[in-house]
Prior knowledge:
Layout: H1 3-9, H2 51-63, E1 68-72, H3 75-84, E2 91-95, H4 100-110, E3 115-119, H5 124-130, E4 136-142, H6 154-163, E5 167-171, H7 176-179, E6 189-193, E7 207-211, H8 216-228, H9 234-244, H10 247-266, E8 271-275, H11 285-291, E9 298-303, H12 306-316, E10 321-322, E11 332-334, H13 336-340, E12 350-354, H14 360-370
Parallel strand pairs: 2-3, 2-4, 4-5, 5-6, 10-11
Antiparallel strand pairs: 1-7, 6-7, 8-9, 9-12, 11-12
Helix pairs in contact: 2-9, 3-4
Pyridoxal-5'-phosphate binds near residues 76, 101, 102 and 146.
Amino acid sequence: MKIETLAIHAGNSTDSNTKAVVQPITLSTTFERAEDGSYPAGYIYTRAANPNRLSLENVLAKLDGGAEACAFSSGNAAGSAVFQSLEPGSQIIAPEDMYHGLKALMNEVFSRTLEISFIDMSDLNLVERTINPRTTKLIWIETPSNPLLKISDIKSICQLAQKHHIIVCCDNTFATPVFQRPLDLGADLVMYSSTKYFGGHSDVLGGALVTKTVNEQWEKIKSIQTLSGAVPSPFDCYMTVRGLKTLPYRMRGHEENAIQIAQFLEQHPAVEKVFYPGLINHPSYAIARSQMSGFSGMLSFTLKGGQEAAIKAANSLKLITQATSLGGVESLIEHRASVEGPNTKTPFNLLRLSVGLENIQDLIEDLNQALQ
Ligand SMILES: *Cc1c(COP(=O)(O)O)cnc(C)c1O
């Protein structure tokens, strides 16, 4: 089955009691035992398993062509489960410009037990030189990266990792399985913040991991999911399943609008530089083309007038909302450096734009008046 069909059907089952076409939300935390002590439907307690979470995990696994998926209460909880599954003393190689919330989690919570090397992942030689054959256990990829839209070569990094028996996990939040399939390119795990494009409407928090194969590492991750209990509520699972049904169509719309905005900004006299992997002059355009079937709806741009001009432009927008997060139907813009804090490597004249599904003419008009 193709992705549009899977997105609609793989997370849903008609209710056998009521024949409701859309699967109802099962709020009960506990499930009745039979006289012989068994659990007739397979459910015991909702932290361990819940019908809505199972449906969500089924569609998540199918969308990425993976064996199984685990749903979490946030993207950071999903990342956390991967880090917790590593033995103390393990080294992680991660991108220096990775999503700052996960970087902070690594630095503030996991740096006591794990060694983390943040490097420029677009430099393959540097990746190879950073590998310690004894201690490196995980290579974390985020491509396109947040907020500089840098591209890492998934296939080449996975080949390097395989030589040294290192696990690769790819944060695929920006591209989604609609545009990029890391498991097919050699990754072991894919990670998502479902809060973004999966939910798609900025009203549900969630995270996910998808595995290529069920192995010892995955069994550890699964027990961390159910024992630590950072699981999404049945309602959150329902909302995410609902959002996923339109994911393939929404992603096409996000990309179509983003390409036009990138081209508009590129020729605008107030703009210094546009960061979008779908532009031919992006330094990794060739790699992006080879591993992505579309370039998604996220872009950043810097302004010639510095930080002051960037903040002024963001404040002058009327339709595009100034807020953090991304992947919703509404366009959002953000001055990233001021959210990321004093240690940020993000340029101060940069704005990140999550291009929504509004009419493209309205979006360009709004940007045009704000950049005057
Ligand atoms: C938002 C985000 C995360 C973290 O997800 P939460 O759902 O906010 O915990 C991780 N990676 C990327 C690329 C993100 O955009």
